[in-house]
Design brief:
The complex is a heterodimer of chains A (327) and B (267). With 327 residues, chain A is mostly helical. Chain A has 13 helices and no strands. Chain A is globular and about 65 Å long. In chain B, helix 4 runs antiparallel to helix 5. Chain B is of the alpha/beta class and 267 residues long. Chain B is built from nine helices and twelve strands. The chains are: A mainly alpha (327), B alpha/beta (267). The interface between A and B is medium-sized, with 25 and 41 residues.
Chain lengths: 327, 267
């Protein structure tokens, strides 16, 4: 494709902003560290205590915010493009709720640890996505039907999740509710590596599919006659999108609105037509990194980042609805 | 008007095909050949299976029995992009992504000529420029597609299919949504493309347009081919009455000397 200078510039600026937010969040906290010491610690020098705080406490959390944010941004971009609808993001169409159901079952029935819960979330997301896909299937899957069925599914799962928590013993219900807040608290390098590995595996596949995805935006007939196998491509993209959302949910619990908002904001800034994968990923990373910093530091107590994104997302959602209604 | 080559070679053939949407059978045991270098127009009343036939020829719809064959090989056996370099389709309904510019949309017609490792090239640039020039949309290239008028938009979609540079062009009702002047302009354009050696297959609603522009007509009714051949041989009062249920008079078109249908109506 012809090089899109604007997208390129926007991506560069987003990277820069992520670096700035990263520097701020590495240096701020209960124990404030000047940027110069942060840099020294990252390069493996400086005071040993500072190095521990920066690289072992704060860095993994920042990395996870960026990685999960970009996973959510990508997932949202994929589903919004497939459904041709700014509301067609995985958190709206039930995949996050499904992941939460999976995780809840593991927590409540088997009192599983972090990895079991993550596995449950992964399975729950995939099972929900399969159900939504099959229910929406009628000679192929059309965007609007997928969204409506997904919203219905999401509501049902939400009710089921609430019921499950009510049935549980108090301490277990508490830990389930905490997980359900969506939080990066207490995560370390141990959790970074599997996420990174998954992203390294998924990203090149997605890069290869980005051009066929753009053809698919022209409608199935036009895509097919330009040499794209529309049905297979759509299924493949859905699998990748679900995997990305499930990955984020498994690692940190349900974090809403990043996948809804990031691709839309990225699209508006880059002014590209249709899907813009790289800017969406970077915007997701930036949003989650900022939201996590605010959740940690702005209110004196540590809030789960999921609470933060829901509040920001609420405003975005209102704006989107008003804008769509005026059209 | 050009002489029709009914018995000439035909790269694109439909052989004993059954075409259906799920349980609903549109055509059964349908066989059609598209003469090479022809301007073939498929006509017929609503729900006669015209578009279905065109969709099958473009591999958008797979026949449940029989086959559509290109150069002796079933379409199903072609790789997606390989087929897309020979056959181009202007679908009835296309969607332009929000905010896409004309140049960007036309450039997407180059997809089958590109790959991960061979992306935008000079040949692509030239093909897009030529397609824009041919359809008279070069002046619009920087404009967003959603701001164009219906006629301009249709020409842009034609430009996208032209940029695909396929020897065979399939057009599904290309003149709908166009006013009469733009309809004729588009058909003239198709005629020019045909004269430059492309095989053009179009589904048209207007019989008089079909008679004027087609070198080969395929008349369909209830999913079967009722008549085919040069307009002069095929379009008769009896055929129009039989296929469309329309009593009419046929006179020579004063401009092109092709058949001109004058409906009797209630007189």
């Amino acid at each position: 494709m012809r090089l899109d200078l604007r997208s390129f510039a926007v991506s560069a600026i987003l990277l820069l902003l992520i670096a700035v937010v990263g520097a701020v969040s590495l240096s701020s906290g209960k124990f404030s560290i000047p940027p110069a010491d942060v840099l020294r610690a990252l390069l493996g020098g400086g005071d040993e205590n500072i190095r521990m705080v920066v690289t072992e406490w704060r860095l993994p959390r920042l990395l996870l915010a960026c990685l999960l944010g970009s996973a959510l941004g990508l997932s949202g971009a994929i589903f919004q493009s497939l459904t041709r609808n700014p509301l067609g993001s995985p958190d709206i169409i039930g995949f996050s709720a499904g992941s939460y159901t999976g995780a809840l079952m593991v927590i409540l029935l088997f009192s599983g640890g972090y990895y079991q819960t993550a596995g449950g979330a992964l399975a729950g997301g995939i099972v929900t996505a399969t159900c939504v896909y099959l229910l929406a299937y009628r000679r192929g899957v059309q965007g609007f039907r997928l969204i409506v069925i997904g919203i219905g599914m999401s509501a049902m799962l939400g009710a089921f999740n609430a019921w499950m928590i009510r049935q549980a013993d108090l301490p277990i219900a508490m830990s389930a509710a905490i997980w359900g807040g969506g939080s990066l608290n207490g995560l370390s390098f141990e959790q970074v590596l599997p996420v990174l590995a998954m992203l390294v595996f998924i990203t090149p596949i997605l890069a290869a599919l980005s051009r066929p995805l753009r053809q698919l935006e022209l409608g199935d007939d036009a895509a097919t006659t330009s040499g794209v196998n529309a049905t297979r491509l759509r299924l493949l993209l859905m699998i990748l999108g679900v995997a990305l959302t499930a990955l984020a949910t498994a690692a940190a619990g349900p974090i809403s609105f990043i996948s809804l908002a990031a691709p839309q904001i990225a699209r508006r800034i880059t002014r590209t037509a249709g899907v813009a994968l790289i800017p969406s990923a970077l915007m997701g990373a930036l949003l989650l990194a900022v939201a996590d910093w605010v959740a940690q530091h702005a209110f004196g107590v540590q809030l789960p980042v999921g609470v933060m994104t829901v509040s920001i997302g609420g405003f975005y959602f209102l704006w989107l609805l008003i804008r769509e209604a005026r059209r | 008007m050009t002489e029709c080559k009914v018995n000439g070679p035909a790269r694109l053939r439909v052989e004993n095909a059954t075409l259906r949407y799920d349980e609903r059978i549109i055509s059964q045991d349908l066989s059609v050949a598209i003469p090479d270098g022809s301007f073939t127009v498929i006509v017929g009343p609503n729900a006669s299976g015209k578009s279905t036939l065109l969709r099958a020829m473009a591999r958008v719809l797979a026949p449940s029995a029989g086959a559509v064959v290109l150069d002796g090989k079933a379409l199903a056996q072609y790789q997606g992009k390989q087929l897309a370099r020979t056959l181009g389709l202007l679908p009835q309904a296309s969607i332009a992504p929000d905010g896409i510019t004309v140049a960007d949309l036309v450039a997407r017609g180059r997809y089958p000529h590109q790959s991960l490792f061979r992306q935008w090239s000079c040949a692509d640039e030239e093909a897009v420029e030529a397609a824009l020039a041919t359809t008279g949309t070069a002046g619009l290239s920087g404009r967003p597609v959603d701001e164009l008028s219906g006629g301009q938009r249709q020409r842009v979609w034609v430009a996208m299919v032209l940029a695909q540079q396929t020897p065979i062009l399939l057009l599904d009702e290309p003149t709908t949504f166009l006013d009469i002047a733009h309809q004729i302009e588009l058909l003239d354009l198709c005629q020019d493309l045909n004269a430059k050696g492309r095989t053009v297959v179009a589904v048209l609603h207007d019989l008089n347009h079909a008679c004027r522009y087609a070198t080969h007509i395929i008349a369909m009714k209830d999913g079967t081919v009722v008549a085919e051949g040069a307009p002069k041989d095929v379009v008769t009062e009896k055929m129009v009455e039989n296929v469309f249920g329309l009593p009419c008079l046929i006179i020579p078109d004063p401009v092109s000397d092709t058949p001109l249908i004058v409906p009797r109506g209630r007189g």
